[in-house]
Amino acid sequence: MKATTSDIEKAAEVLRAGGLVALPTETVYGLGANAEDPAAVSRIFQVKGRPPTHPLIVHIGGAEQLDEWVEEVPATARLLAEHFWPGPLTLVLRRGRRVPLEATGGLETVAVRVPDHPLALALLETFGGGVTAPSANRFGSVSPTTAHHVRAELGDAVDFVLDGGPCEVGVESTIVDATGEVPSILRPGGVTREDLEAVLGRPVAVPATSQVRVPGQHPSHYAPRARVVLVEPEKVVAEAEQAQELGHRVGVLLPPSLAGAPVKTHVVETVPASMAAYARGLYGLLRELDQRGCDLIVASLPAEEGLGLAIANRLRRAAGPRPL
Ligand code: TXA
Ligand code: MG
To answer: Which residues form the YrdC-like domain (predicted)?
Structure first.
């Protein structure tokens, strides 16, 4: 069921009363609270099972509101905000006094973005303030891209779910540290490195996935229940069939170049050749393989350019070492 105008009003009311609202964005669904209500923000951490030191993103209704939430807007940050908002870009800047430390995990910087989804923007306008929202999933698991995913994972822990249909982008926003002169990518996402470089007119650094740069960027994140194994594209079929023979229930994410190849495993899914379609479907696919009982997922990485960079980052993290 899609949300109506009265749903937007109800959701804004829930936020004002200190409750939690799951809201659609163009990237993934967020678990939102009034950014200026420390008790409500703290509830987000409880519901997600997320350590309180992991900073959240403050969602605002427009680029013109940025100065209300941060201490200072360097020229580069202004340029990026004006160019990419509303859109899947998050800017890390110096925290304004309006932002409680609960929302930033105690950091003196804050992550801010303007989501590009009509319902999210309508909610932000009706509510009138900022909404802190991490992805609406339990800590470490796969982000939700439909309202159904949110309800299945968080159930009654959320006071209201605003259904905006499936998310268009499917992977989270690109996070850019814009505190200094030279911006760098902290997390690749919906806005590509190439897009950023075209606007800035210079190269933008992307740290290696293995480097844990900021809280909330642990190696094992965005992970399905099934273990994920990454191999070269030409080894996917052999690796998957061997694991299946050893007794695993294997789900294969088959590269598009191998579409139609016969593979003897529990589930076979050919991934789309278009990176936009792959990103849109990635989390739903991982959830589906879990649901169909796979205990092992064999996949390969796409070329790390355009949206392929974000997809490869999520697959690497899903395959990363897990806490015991
Ligand atoms: O697309 C998205 O960004 C989604 C939608 C709901 O907007 N949100 C999202 O939130 O992915 P979350 O909480 O799952 O990831 C936000 C990440 C944190 O894990 C952290 O790595 C980074 O943003 N972050 C937040 N504040 C930061 C800060 N002050 N400095 C550095 N990184 C920060
Ligand atoms: Mg998340």
So the answer is: 5-191
> DSSP string spanning 167-196?
-SS-SPPEEEE-SSSS-EEEE--SS-HHHH
Instruction: Examine the predicted complex and report whether its ipTM is higher than 0.85.
Output: yes
Using alpha carbons, select from 118, 236, 90 the residue that is nearest to residue 177: 90
Q: Ligand nearest 139 Cα, by number?
A: 2
pLDDT tens digits for range 36-95: 999 999 999 999 999 999 999 999 999 999 999 999 999 999 999 999 999 999 999 999
pTM of full prediction above 0.90: yes
Fold of 5-200: DHBP synthase (3.90.870)
Domain layout of the chain by residue ranges: 5-200, 227-318
Pocket test for ligand 1, best of 58, 107, 149, 172 (most atoms within 8 A of CB): 172
CATH number belonging to domain 227-318: 3.40.50.11030
Q: Is 231 in the pocket of ligand 1 (CB under 6 A)?
A: no
The pLDDT tens digits of the residues spanning 249-293 come to 999 999 999 999 999 999 999 999 999 999 999 999 999 999 999
* Closest ligand relative to 70 C-alpha: 1
